[in-house]
Amino acid sequence: xxxxxxxxxxxxxxxxxxxxxxxxxxxxxxxxxxxxxxxxxxxxxxxxxxxxxxxxxxxxxxxxxxxxxxxxxxxxxxxxxxxxxxxxxxxxxxxxxxxxxxxxxxxxxxxxxxxxxxxxxxxxxxxxxxxxxxxxxxxxxxxxxxxxxxxxxxxxxxxxxxxxxxxxxxxxxxxxxxxxxxxxxxxxxxxxxxxxxxxxxxxxxxxxxxxxxxxxxxxxxxxxxxxxxxxxxxxxxxxxxxxxxxxxxxxxxxxxxxxxxxxxxxxxxxxxxxxxxxxxxxxxxxxxxxxxxxxxxxxxxxxxxxxxxxxxxxxxxxxxxxxxxxxxxxxxxxxxxxxxxxxxxxxxxxxxxxxxxxxxxxxxxxxxxxxxxxxxxxxxxxxxxxxxxxxxxxxxxxxxxxxxxxxxxxxxxxx
Length: 415
Description:
- The chain is mainly α.
- It has 2 domains: 180 residues, no CATH class; 198 residues, Orthogonal Bundle (hpI Integrase, Chain A).
- The strands form 3 sheets. A 3-stranded antiparallel β-sheet has the order 5-6-7. The protein has a two-stranded parallel sheet with strand order 1-4.
- The longest helix has 21 residues.
- The model has no long low-confidence stretch (mean pLDDT 89).
- It is found in: Cytoplasm.
- This is Site-specific recombinase XerD.
- One of its GO terms (biological process) is DNA recombination.
- Keywords: DNA integration, DNA recombination, DNA-binding.
């Protein structure tokens, strides 16, 4: 049997530090295990740990996913609270996550809870794991299959990292004596060691020329719909923005006043990035021109003022800022698809292939990869908001170019 979801979305989750008894009272009908004090305490600790990450929806969701899976496995498979698990049982759990039973796997994302007669109840369609397929496979008509579920190396690393933090929290609460995740010595049997540097996923300069030209053509044909599209595309590449830095969420709502001019007359764009850290991005002359065009279309003065609260990206209909990251993805995907068709019509199908699998984040990678060729990498690092220079170094291809140039001279018939 598939166990029921335990932890609702952040907006529906009462503060477990002060309202835990109310949470248990609502959950008891669907989770009889909570009548046991050990499991009740286990849930309270888990909820307090996860709720501590309520400053970021994405971080909360990631920590909830991993801890909730552990709770469900520990309770229903091991018949034990997570505070009683040993190192070898954590290893069993990792193996379980890598190959869960089909009953635990869904083929689409569904809500954990739904409204029933005024109360939030577990959604019977929800599964702890979801099988996914690539964007290209989906376009070709394929559908996810539960038997094909697999965890990526990044997902396995995230599981180790989050669960280690969880048990660190339990140690601080004196609920466990040691961290069983940290005691796993041979993580290499789960997580492979990667090559020195993974290839950065980006589109080529030719592909970008077609993409941005496509956006410009769309803006000329239907400015009411696509002037915003053109600005979004320029902002994603020209300022290396993540989607979360472009749309409004519970942490921030980007406005025109986030473009600011310093005493030297230089323009900057202020964003709230990962970890709730603010950063300033140097705005290029081309990006400034794109901003002016966009503001003229919206009947705004050419340049914003520091106190201007006009939403940076407005909704399609109604007032207020765009809040849907999915809508941005759809806008970018439409440009990619149209650019792909145009390249194929121009006889460049092989050059266009990457556009069929590219994602929004590839634009950030592309902008950084190009800028690091000509700008000091310290400047690019600050604009990109990288936590360390090692992350920025991934975008520098000089060593790889030289290595491949020397490798091309190797012969199959040594002298």
